[in-house]
Amino acid sequence: MTVLMDRPSATDENWNPEPEELLDSLELPPGYKAELIEGDIVVTPPPSFNHESVLMRMSRQLYPRDWATAGNLGVVTPLGRFVPDLVVTSFDYWERDSDESWQTSADIAMVVEVTSSNPTKDRDPKRRGYAKAEIPLYLLVDRQTKETVLFSEPENGDYRAADRRPLGDPIPLPAPFSFTLEEVR
Question: If you placed Cys at 78, which of 17, 70, 104, 132 could pair as Cys (CB 3.0 to 4.6 Å)?
Answer without folding.
Answer: 132
